[in-house]
UniProtKB/TrEMBL annotation, chain B:
<keyword id="KW-0812">Transmembrane</keyword>
<comment type="function">
    <text>Part of the ABC transporter complex LsrABCD involved in autoinducer 2 (AI-2) import. Probably responsible for the translocation of the substrate across the membrane.</text>
</comment>
<keyword id="KW-0472">Membrane</keyword>
<keyword id="KW-1133">Transmembrane helix</keyword>
<keyword id="KW-0997">Cell inner membrane</keyword>
<dbReference type="GO" id="GO:0022857">
    <property type="term" value="F:transmembrane transporter activity"/>
</dbReference>
<keyword id="KW-0813">Transport</keyword>
<feature type="transmembrane region" description="Helical">
    <location>
        <begin position="50"/>
        <end position="69"/>
    </location>
</feature>
<dbReference type="GO" id="GO:0005886">
    <property type="term" value="C:plasma membrane"/>
</dbReference>
TrEMBL record, chain C:
<protein>
    <recommendedName>
        <fullName>Autoinducer 2 import system permease protein LsrD</fullName>
    </recommendedName>
</protein>
<feature type="transmembrane region" description="Helical">
    <location>
        <begin position="91"/>
        <end position="111"/>
    </location>
</feature>
<feature type="transmembrane region" description="Helical">
    <location>
        <begin position="308"/>
        <end position="327"/>
    </location>
</feature>
<keyword id="KW-1133">Transmembrane helix</keyword>
<feature type="transmembrane region" description="Helical">
    <location>
        <begin position="197"/>
        <end position="216"/>
    </location>
</feature>
<feature type="transmembrane region" description="Helical">
    <location>
        <begin position="62"/>
        <end position="84"/>
    </location>
</feature>
<feature type="transmembrane region" description="Helical">
    <location>
        <begin position="31"/>
        <end position="50"/>
    </location>
</feature>
<feature type="transmembrane region" description="Helical">
    <location>
        <begin position="117"/>
        <end position="140"/>
    </location>
</feature>
<dbReference type="InterPro" id="IPR001851">
    <property type="entry name" value="ABC_transp_permease"/>
</dbReference>
Length: 506, 339, 360
């Protein structure tokens, strides 16, 4: 990279942002040069998304300056950002499924001749764009809803480029893509940088940085540590920078020898998402499953819980082959699950805490089948509220009025109406404050002590190390590595990001 | 990974593929409908020789006109993920206001039509304003306004019918006065309106925006589309078309206007729209499909009579047609999304 | 977001004056608002009566007699409650057509085949449930939008009723005698100084409402229905069979419509094949009652008491309008009142949700 002499496309200096009393980022610095790919890495909550939102005009910084091509600018809204040429491609494509690719790209700023959309003029422009993103011309008129996720993402990028992008922000674009699709993405990115676009590339998959990035800025705890030339880095080095010198306190080492496993997975396949997954968990054991978004880690939990049907291999539960047609069947067996997306999959928002707890096992509410004994329901709810330390004046409060941590405790309580034999927790502490996180971790420990096998699926690195007896790292639908009690954050991150070849089994 | 070409019938006859700059002209649902209508007409023609004569087909087309005409507006509304169940009551209001004015003042054709259209547009404005700016689900709002419009309509009617209607609207009627070169005026106007709406939905930027609003309202707003005025406009257009359709209905009727002139029409219109392949969830639909849907419904209705079956049986077939049309659409969408 | 901001209501400590509290209660508790409106309607009508502006006397006897029209209205309101609660655009346009079809079923089984009252009632109710099951299957298992599925079955059932009956009402001697089931009766023991109440209130409405209430509030089915109406995805993750339970809501709606058919046969002493679909039909008023009663069109919110109070409000308001305005004007003003109530109620629902977040 020889153009370091040129003016930076964007220079963010001393950026801080507080939410209420909480500092999301402080004194962050980011300098991106035209024609380069600048990677931004950091753990969840390190402040990457806040920094990007400030650049995209979605948030206003409390302090700091932004210079664009050497001139100081203020980005007060997303419109301001778009006018400067800052375009963002989010993971969720903001597209219209029934409209064609061409229309999606031109929506809101169609080329018109009188009242009529000038299709010919748009087509002329679109073909150039399609060439650049590597889609065949005949797809120009295809409804976007007919495209694959990867193709939709390409359309989003084309849309951003058509909006005269001078800085293109790609927010974890590779998370949802397969390897071949990622290669297509990279060639698009290279073509863009060749045209002088500055690309800010956010990712968790550290291995791909060496293929695509020119420079890397690492964020930790709301600060930008430093910016490095990719040539000076390795996956392990980046992982070390991301996690810093923090040593998480560990649970005492425990042994489960001699106990027969609660659950075994043998060569489990789920479509093209999981391939030959083997796994064992014993009573009282806390098994951490760590994997990046799109790694297949979520599908393991869903298959065990009956939300997804395996397409190959088998599951053995308490020594017997198991097929779960649905969650209800899994729950009858004593397998419960705390879903990852609390607001979409977890809470019944305007219903009471009592309602939100008891829905987990209505049969428990009365000796007569199908009947609800309100007194018993109340007692059970109050008991769990007390056990889990849910902060609420009474059990009739709507769950929508509660903080994230308290709502999460209620969703967990729902899984504990009868002590589960196997408890699966997906992202148990996402969007939860520090105090509640502490309490939830303690609760998980207590449950394991009492003999429940606990499977924790998380993308929170410190969490997985802190509570697990054993950690399995999932990558590309396979178990990539297994770590015992002595694992470090760097080991796990490196394994999940592709520094270690995937363990192949016979 | 997936072949998108196979999931939709590509009707590209005559257009070289490389030059293709627009989505295909005709959707799968429309092809299916044309096929079904053709089969029905041929069957009915074989079974009852009288069916394929002008004496049978022309009244059929005249009867299609008002439903298809309102259907055009309803299609626009449903594409934005709205609905209007007040059109039946709005027909009553526009037709009673227009016919009473005609009886009282004897105004000629053009002013009478304009009056009816203006009254209809005003009613549409009420609906559109409440739906777009009141942020209440369209079905609730229009259930409410249906009651209000009925009240207004009945107030105009008083306790009786409107009698002694002049023959001003016979140009829209079934008779000789309603045709030029054998083509019914009302149907010809409907075809013109369908063509205009087809052009609007296919080529005008704001027409394309309707699909965007129905597909993802938030994203549409972020793309800089002014969503509320756009939604408002669809209801006003529908109201105006209701006004025109009311003129057709008066012309088709006798010299007496009954209070029941609009009763149940809203469901007939919605049936035509959904049979035509417009998704009630928004974001997808065609006016050509709606016209075909209306023709199919009317074919079934007159077919039942021609066969000498009890006329009430036609509603049963309409129900079956809705389930078949929407059912195949649901299954087709499901396989399309899955592939 | 993920950090330590506790949301305001974790411990609700804000204090407000009495005025604020009562406004909040009226807006968030639909029952309170309906109760107040009923009192206002009664007060206004009675003072009009006292001032001599009424063509008849708006007294307890009149109010009790007016309840005859509350029976089908409230029952169909309960039917709509079931399906609207189930969420995903739940609605049933076919209730009127099911009523028509079931009128004929009852007409045949009681009036023509002479199967006896109890078997006839069972057959009619089952017929309604089967109609509802068709709706439920289309909606829950095939994935039809409820509006479309029930629009289609509306046409089909309506047509079947007319075809089966040959478009002629059934009014054999048994059916004519059945009129007694719609008469007003004196309540035993305490009834001598109370007005006579239409029998249908006791034989149909109260049992239906009671069963609906028990079903929704005291059974696991009710819980599951509220759960899937509130959040269909979360219900699935919690192990609720969303399809079977959603289908059941439509079955119940059909079942209740079947029972309404019997009430209507009694009221008219005749089993008419167009009983549920003539004029504006019965679906529209039923949906109006449900929305007015505080049922959220988005699902998961709604109570039996709301339906009952909304029915009382509409019935007594209508009864008053009929006395205050002679003839046609009265029936017309009923439409105006219903339309304004519906739009007003939904605007109010919106306001409440914006201001207080929830509505019960």
């Amino acid at each position: 990279m020889s153009e370091q002499i040129t003016t930076p496309r964007i220079a963010m200096r001393g950026i801080s942002k507080n939410y209420g009393g909480v500092r999301a980022i402080r004194q962050a610095e980011l300098t991106v040069y035209p024609g380069t790919v600048h990677a931004l890495v950091g753990e969840n909550g390190a402040g990457k998304s806040t920094l990007i939102k400030i650049l995209a005009g979605a948030e206003q910084p409390n302090t700091g300056t932004i210079a664009f091509d050497g001139e100081a600018v203020s980005i007060a809204s997303t419109t301001d950002a778009i006018e400067l040429g800052v375009q963002t491609v989010y993971q969720e494509p903001q597209l219209f499924p029934e409209l064609s690719i061409t229309e999606n790209i031109f929506i809101g700023r169609e080329i018109k001749r009188g009242l009529r959309v000038d299709w010919a003029a748009q087509a002329a422009q679109i073909h150039e764009l399609l060439d650049m993103i590597g889609l065949p011309h005949h797809l120009a008129t295809a409804p976007v809803g007919d495209l694959s996720i990867a193709q939709q993402q390409q359309v989003s990028i084309a849309k951003a480029v058509a909006g005269e992008a001078r800085i293109l922000i790609l927010d974890e674009p590779s998370a949802i893509l397969t390897d071949t699709e990622i290669n297509v993405l990279f060639s698009i990115v290279r073509r863009l940088t060749a045209r002088g676009v500055a690309v800010i590339y956010i990712t968790h998959r550290l291995d791909e940085l060496f293929e695509i990035a020119d420079t890397v800025t690492v964020m930790r705890d709301g600060q930008t540590l430093d910016t490095y030339d990719i040539k000076d880095l390795t996956v392990t080095k980046i992982a070390e920078l991301m996690v810093g010198g923090i040593v998480t306190e560990k649970r005492p080492e425990r042994s489960f020898d001699g106990l027969s496993p609660t659950l075994e997975l043998h060569q489990l396949d789920v479509g093209h998402l999981l391939h030959g997954v083997d796994l064992q968990i014993r009573p009282g054991e806390i098994l951490g499953l760590y994997g990046l978004l799109g790694s297949g880690v979520a599908e393991i939990a869903e298959a065990v819980y009956g939300m997804k049907q395996p397409t190959g291999g088998r599951m053995v539960y308490q020594g017997k082959a198991m097929v779960n047609k649905g969650p209800a069947e899994a729950r009858r067996r004593g397998i419960t699950l705390v879903p990852a997306n609390r607001s979409a999959q977890g809470v019944f928002s305007f219903q009471s805490i009592r309602f939100n707890i008891s829905i987990g096992d209505l049969a428990k509410l009365s000796p007569v089948k199908g009947w609800i004994n309100r007194g018993r329901e109340r007692d059970i709810a109050l008991d769990l509220i007390k056990r889990l330390g849910v902060k609420t004046p009474n059990e009739n409060q709507p769950i929508s009025a509660m903080s994230g941590g308290n709502a999460q405790k209620v969703v967990i309580a729902r899984q504990l109406l009868s002590t589960p034999k196997l408890l699966i927790l997906a992202e148990p502490t996402q969007g939860v404050d520090v105090g509640a996180k502490e309490e939830i971790h303690r609760l998980i420990g207590d449950l394991a002590e009492s003999g429940t096998a606990v499977l924790v699926v998380t993308t929170d690195l410190s969490e997985v190390l802190r509570i697990s007896d054993r950690v399995l790292v999932v990558r590309e639908g396979r178990i990539a590595a297994e770590f015992g009690h002595d694992a470090t954050q760097v080991d796990i991150l490196a394994a999940a990001s592709g520094a270690v070849p995937i363990r192949k089994e016979a | 990974m997936r072949t998108t070409e196979k999931s939709r019938p590509q009707v590209t006859a005559g257009i070289p593929v490389a030059k293709k700059i627009l989505p295909s002209l005709v959707t799968g649902q429309e092809v299916v409908l044309i096929g079904i209508i053709a089969v029905l007409w041929i069957l009915l023609g074989l079974l009852t020789p009288a069916f394929l004569t002008a004496g049978s087909i022309l009244p059929l087309l005249v009867a299609v006109a008002p439903i298809a005409l309102i259907g055009v507006g309803m299609t626009l509304i449903i594409i934005t993920a709205g609905i209007d169940v007040s059109v039946g009551a709005a027909i009553m209001v526009t037709s009673v206001v227009t016919s009473q004015t005609m009886v009282a003042t004897g105004i000629p054709l053009i002013p009478a039509v304009l009056l009816s259209v203006a009254v209809g547009a005003l009613l549409g404005l009420v609906n559109g304003y409440l739906v777009a700016y009141g942020k209440i689900h369209a079905i609730i709002i229009t259930f409410g306004t249906a009651n209000l419009f009925q009240f207004i309509g009945l107030r105009f009617f008083g306790s009786s019918t409107v009698n002694g209607l002049p023959d001003t609207f016979d140009v829209f009627g079934r008779g000789e006065a309603g045709r030029t070169f054998g083509i019914p005026h009302s149907f010809a106007i409907t075809v013109i309106v369908v063509a205009l709406a087809w052009w609007y939905l296919r080529h005008a930027a704001s027409g394309r925006h309707l699909f965007a609003v129905g597909g993802n309202e938030t994203a549409a707003r972020l793309a800089g589309i002014k969503v509320k005025p756009l939604i408002l406009r669809t209801y006003v257009i529908t109201g105006a078309l209701v006004g025109l359709a009311a003129c057709f209905l008066i012309g088709q009727g006798t010299s007496t206007l009954e209070q029941s002139v609009g009763a149940g029409r809203e469901l007939a219109v919605i049936a035509a729209v959904v049979i035509g392949g417009t998704s009630i969830l928004g974001g997808r639909g065609t006016v050509l499909g709606t016209l075909l849907g209306a023709i199919l419904v009317q074919t079934v209705t007159s077919g039942v009579t021609q066969m000498g079956w009890p006329s009430q049986l036609s509603d049963f077939f309409v129900g079956v047609a809705i389930i078949a049309a929407v059912g195949t659409d649901i299954l087709r969408e499901r396989s399309r999304r899955k592939s | 977001m993920s950090t330590t901001t506790l949301k305001r209501n974790d411990v609700q400590q804000r204090s407000h004056g009495f005025g604020y509290k009562s406004v909040k209660m009226l807006l968030t508790q639909r029952i309170a608002l309906l109760g107040l409106l009923i009192v206002v309607v009664l007060a206004v009508m009675m003072s009009l009566d006292a001032a001599g502006a009424m063509s008849g006397s708006y007294d307890a006897d009149y109010l009790a007699a007016a309840l005859i029209s509350a029976v089908p209205l409230a029952m169909l309101g309960l039917a709509e409650l079931m399906v609207i609660l189930s969420g995903r655009g739940g609605i049933d346009l076919s209730v009127g057509a099911i009523v028509s079809l079931c009128c004929i079923v009852f007409g045949y089984s009681y009036g023509i085949w002479d199967l006896g009252l109890f078997p006839s009632i069972v057959i009619t109710a089952v017929a309604g449930a089967v109609c509802g099951a068709i709706n439920g299957f289309l909606v829950a298992y095939i994935g039809f939008p409820p509006l479309i599925a029930t629009l289609a079955t509306f046409y089909a059932f309506k047509s079947l009723a007319l075809i089966i009956s040959g478009q002629k009402p059934i009014s054999t001697i048994q059916i004519q005698d059945f009129f007694s089931a719609a008469q007003s009766v004196e309540i035993p023991v305490i009834g001598y100084n109370l007005p006579n109440i239409p029998l249908g209130i006791f034989t149909f409405l109260i049992p239906t409402a009671l069963l609906a209430w028990i079903l929704l509030n005291r059974t696991t089915f009710g819980r599951r229905l509220y759960a899937l109406g509130t959040n269909d995805v979360a219900a699935r993750w919690a192990g609720v069979d969303t399809r079977a339970n959603r289908m059941m809501a439509y079955v119940l709606s059909g079942l209740i419509s079947g029972l309404v058919a019997i009430v209507i046969v009694a009221q008219f002493a005749s089993a008419r094949p167009d009983a549920g679909v003539s004029g504006n039909g019965l679906a529209l008023p039923a949906i109006t009652i449900a929305v007015l009663g505080g049922v959220a069109i988005t699902g998961g919110i709604g109570r039996v008491s709301g339906i009952l109070l909304a029915t009382l409000l509409v019935v007594w308001l209508n009864a008053g309008i009929l006395l205050a305005f002679a003839g046609n004007e009265g029936t017309q003003l009923q439409l105006l009142a219903l339309g304004l109530l519906l739009i007003g109620a939904s605007l109010l629902n919106n306001l409440t949700r914006k201001k207080f977040g929830v509505l019960y």
